[in-house]
Sequence to fold (454 residues):
Amino acid sequence: MPFFAGEKRFTGISLCDMINKKRQEEMRVLNKDELLLYAITDCDNYQGEELLKRTELILQNDATMLQYRDKHGKAKDDVAALKALCVKYGVPFIINDDVDLALAIDADGVHVGQDDTAAVQAREKLGPDKILGVTAKTLAQAQKAVADGADYLGVGALFHSMSKDSSLLAREDLKAITAGVAIPVVGIGGISEDNAAILAGTGIAGVAVINALYSYPNPSLVTKRLARKVGYIVNGDADLAGVLADVDGTLTDTLAFYQNLVPNFLKDNGYRPGGDLIQILSEKTLPESIGYVKHNYSGAFGVGQVVDDLEAELEWYYHTEGKAKPGVKAFLARAQEKQVPVVATSIHDAEVCRTLFEHAGILEQITNIASGWDKRYPGGDSRLFDMAVAMIGAAPDHIWAFNDGIEGIFGAKGASVKIAAIYDENHSEKEWAQIIKNADVAFMNWQEACEWLG
Fold:
């Protein structure tokens, strides 16, 4: 696809305007996937043979672009060799800030920051046939960079970084920038395997990283894993064969009610539930939860009767109050259009789930229900997800489990499926961070997931 997506307006006849117009007319075509995993050299810590060795391992394992960044000139003697590696592996070679050096060695382009060479001056010196990247922290800076001739933007910092002190950019501000410009945006700043998943749904074209790659003596495996993850974040899964969707808190807004079933039962019967009870019970089925509180609270009640009563209470709530979360209906409709089967996964009885789906208006879009009720599988049991995978009848590595809880995510990982996390406000920030760390992609809402589905 054209690297210069969208239309630029030209109102003057400055040299920069003329260059931009010429470039637009020529429509130089670059694949934006070259920005997918954008490696930046760690010249502060490595030079010479060690820098070149690590760089080659990074380029061998699916890095798509390389930037020479050397603020203190420690690796200036390695520039020619770095360029040669980029030529060898067919990736663009970008110089940080130094336009004269880029022209002297015929690099593919230059990246400038807000405090470096002005973008308009860099474009005038580079001419129309070189790549120009510009760092932006605000939408106004991003739009000015586009007007000055930028080909892509580096936007951040998104997370705390060891290589550069910088204020953090909110995720919503990143989304506003990607939506507000017509050129690709690369996320920068502290990105790693542990936090990249949350960049799904933001509209980025790739990520730029230093420490996440260069800090490893042998960065081969981490580079390949990060490239694969970013590929899913940016481009989705072209071979997606099916979706597994958790019920409470993922498809529907019923998580808070379910979490409070047992604590409320205790309160109604004169017991005082502990503050951490919800977290303790999150890994248990309803019968296991009742058994736990009977033992730990010296309960004078029968487990079977309480389970039946609470399950009936849950079914009543499902039938009268439970709703699909915002965006779920659009996602399920899009999955149906794409002929992607959706199997709901739940620890509850399948008929209870059907009651909820019917009330929520999504029953017809659910292909099947994998229930752990009869076999008492908890939500984190991989056998529940194995059952759901068998219902789809496709290879697990192209099935995606959408889940809002860490136990469900661990269970899905045990079934070898991909993980798509969906945010639910009923989980703590600490748990959400753990969920992001274990997910392949993570969304703040179903609208983002629907756009990702394509």
